Amino acid sequence: MNKKLLFAEIVAILIVILCSGCTSLPNSALEKIGHRNVEFAMTRHDTRPVVFENGLGGRMDWWKKVLSEISSDTTTFVYNRPGYGNSDPIATPRDGLHIVDELRTLLRDNGMKPPYILVGHSLGGLYMQFFARRYPEEVSALILVDSTHPQQLDGEGALDKQSFLVRGLLGVMVIGTAKDELNLLPQTGKQVLNLPTLSDKPIFVLSASKPLDEKSTSADDANKKRRDIARLYPGSKQIWVDSGHAIPLEKSEAVVSAIREAQRLRHSNQMQLESFTDDP
């Protein structure tokens, strides 16, 4: 992909970010939890909860196509982090440690009991990596959707190595809470790598294949890190999706398929455990 096409894709993603809160999800609610308003949507069934985390600047509407396919028979929880949509901002640092602990509190306050199937897109994938490593006993499966790498902004991925156009767009459109999260992304990455990797759980790494055609130093670095995420999780299943970065919007069926496979694996493992327990 040449620089013009790369620029066009970045513009398209940023436009979607700005418009992602223009529609509401079914079952969405705005409730005061503690001392702040939180915007979320959830469904309840007799299944393990599937918990979604949005990317940088993204809102819960990004998962609308996925939710329409699974929410009729699956417990789901999706929300807007503090400072996004109608969720009130919060004064705590916007790093993985605080964001994950706030999410855990929110899940408990809404009666969502672990273990969870964690699904995270882009920067949300980095937060879910931290969640899974810090609280592995609360995780049933991990699904990373074109996730940010813990060292995404290292080396050629550093913001000052990006083109003038990209840096200009980021400066104009990534503001407020999103800017705070971006500034603390390297800190979140270190928090992830300082913990043992997740093991003995189903892990799906959904990676966008279209950016592999981009030709630039920064694109090569980003694609190298796309391939490397699976290495961070031995035994994980990497799936290349014919999509750009916005997989939940472009190829929602890939996310649905991974969730369904995680559910089947959990059910199969539970059946085997019960069979082993019942043996004389």
Model regions low in confidence, pLDDT < 50 over at least 5 residues:
1-8, 271-280
Structural class determined from secondary elements: alpha/beta
H/E order of the elements? HEEEHEHEHEHHHEHEHH
Percent strand: 15-25%
Say what oligomer this is. Answer: single chain
User: What percent of the residues sit in helical stretches (DSSP H or I)?
Assistant: 40-55%
Mean pLDDT: 87
CATH superfamily: Alpha/Beta hydrolase fold, catalytic domain
- Domain tally: 1
Question: Architecture, according to CATH?
Answer: 3-Layer(aba) Sandwich
Rg (CA only): 18 Å
User: What is the CATH level 1 assignment?
Assistant: Alpha Beta
Give the overall form.
Answer: globular
Helical segment count: 10
- How would you characterize the largest beta sheet? 8 strands, mixed
3D architecture notes:
The chain has 280 residues and is α/β, with parallel strands linked by helices. It has one domain (3-278): 3-Layer(aba) Sandwich (Rossmann fold), CATH 3.40.50.1820. The protein is built from ten helices and eight strands. It has helices spanning 3-19, 64-70, 96-109, 123-134, 164-173, 176-183, 185-193, 217-228, 247-250, 252-278, and strands at residues 28-33, 36-43, 50-53, 76-79, 116-121, 139-145, 203-208, 237-241. An eight-stranded mixed β-sheet has the order 1-2-4-3-5-6-7-8, sandwiched between helices. Helix 1 runs parallel beside helix 5, helix 2 (64-70) packs parallel to helix 10 (252-278) and helix 3 packs across helix 4 (123-134). The termini are far apart. Mean pLDDT is 87; it is low at 1-8 and 271-280.
